[in-house]
Amino acid sequence: MATLQGMSGVDLRALVAEAADRLPLWVGKIYQFDAKTLGIRLNGEDRAKYLLLVETGRRAHFTAEFPVPPKNPPSFAMLLRKHLEGGKVLGIRQLGLERTISLDIGKRDTTYHLIFELFDEGNAVLCGEDYTIIKPLWHHRFKTREVVPGAVYAFEGSDCLSQSSEAFQTMLVESDRDIVRTLAVGCMLGGAYAEEVCLAAGVEKSAAAAEVDAEAVRGAFERLMADVGGRREPVITASGCWPVVLAGEEVRERFSTFSEALDAFYPKTASGKEEAAAEKPRLSQTEVIRRRQAEAIKGFEKKIERNQRIVEVIYENYTAVAGIIATLDDASKSRSWQEIEQILKANGDNPAAKTVRAIHPSEAAVDLDLSGERVKTFVHETIEQNLGRYYDQIKKFKKKKAGALAAMERTVPEKARTKKNLVLRKKRWYHRFRWFTTSDGILVIGGRDASQNEELVKKYMEGGDLFVHADVHGGSVVIVKGTTEHLDEAVLFAASYSNAWKAGHFTADVYAARPDQVSKTAESGEYVARGAFIVRGERQYFRNVSLGAAIGLAMAPEVAVIGGPPGAVTERAKVWVELRPGQFEPNDTAKKVVRALREKLSEDEWKGLKNALNTEAVAAFVPPGGSDIVEP
């Protein structure tokens, strides 16, 4: 029976049988909703979708709807996604009648085992093919086993029905308990299911296990597990949620699957939205500062009050304190503090000795218990000097309190918060190539390497396009996707993203040709390397094209880093920098560009653009070879 505290091994047997009926399954997304609850989206045949929810230490079942996952997935969920996403569920197994299940998932050339423990505190453990633990949700070390990375997970368990009839009978004969407890504990049935077996077998549950009809009990046991595994009648009763209806249980609600019953029985896991709603309202900057100041003032007042109390108790015990100071000061001249401490312990009945609670040899001080207040007293100083120490503390904290009160009276200007609805650029097919848009809106794309050069010509070059290439060995194949009045921008683009830039040249020749002039077919005896092409016929040449590039940040219609010829970039960018061949490597150049663009933005603007303006985004537009930033 499944209760609000958790599921039994028999309940888990029903769930595993139900899940196995849905095979084959493939692992989709994996989520972690809180410290103990995980969800796996499983894809079945005919586009079927199943949502498996597991609350470790408590329950596992399919659900109609997952809770809202956290915005940033926990590291364990990310690890499971890395290893299991897209894998095929080869099997779903239970460890005997233990509250432990394993999802065996095949991916590429290996099989992973994702094990869920529903007993005690619970756990989720990812294992390799040989059950070596890759990562558990929780690390545990027990006397008999370890659940830590590198250890081998012992996935094995007993099931009374897996024994032969003779072994089952021997187990009953050797038991010193009554039959119901033998089944409940020894066979892990639990009390309710054990009583059901006794009732079906026609034996008295209080009878000694050694004296009952073993065959009758085994038969009843087998019929129960057959019903749980294949003839389920899921119900919710007053006592819990059941995969089958037991005798004497009053049914409140029936369900077609055990998962539906469990999903209705267990309270919904709090979603991220509900948790966010329960969070405290966000305070303004002024409110946060005032709250901190108020807490500081309370702390100062407590310290002032305590030091004032210490002064009072010293005066109340003036004679006794003065005597202790004089005695210990005199004793320290001829004895060590260790000897003094031993003498005080030996004279524990002496009222003065009882007053000393602790000794601080390095400070020549003792803690005295004065009217319930622990007071540090320095024995080489007079009582007035000791009082002076506490008066100094009172003055110090009164001064701090006054400063905090004065600060609270000053108005803290609140910065106006303006929420900007920034639309980040969506990923498009051509973003993996070099690319830019001409001033009149024509897309120009170029290859980053020989493989992309090949792909552009074979897959993306069409009849109305223009083939552009720098007249140097090594460079981007540039395809102009349409007719533009700013062909000079495409030409400059081809020159700048060629080996001319890498060689440190400041100019290069560029030519253009029609798509029908470009061929991969070589003449007899010739060879055309990967990424290279033969251009036949008359070409249009552009001589001594000046190299240069610009990288900027566009704000509309989408927020994104853009790059290419300066004329095309500066028209669309809010801020930009220009590059020319120089000394800094591409990665260093990208970092310098990010810093330069950031300096052109206000602090508020920069905070809202961190996801768009970064080194990776800028590096995609940095030409090959060394570069320098052109100073304005």
Automatic annotation (TrEMBL):
Record protein name field: Fibronectin-binding domain-containing protein
Sequence ranges assigned to domain NFACT RNA-binding in this UniProt record: 433-537
PANTHER family attached to this UniProt entry: NUCLEAR EXPORT MEDIATOR FACTOR NEMF, RIBOSOME QUALITY CONTROL COMPLEX SUBUNIT NEMF
GO BP term (any one): rescue of stalled ribosome
One Pfam family cited in the UniProt record for this chain: NFACT-R_1
Species: Methanoculleus formosensis
A GO cellular-component term linked to this record: RQC complex
GO molecular function: ribosomal large subunit binding; tRNA binding
NCBIfam families named among the record's database cross-references: RqcH_arch
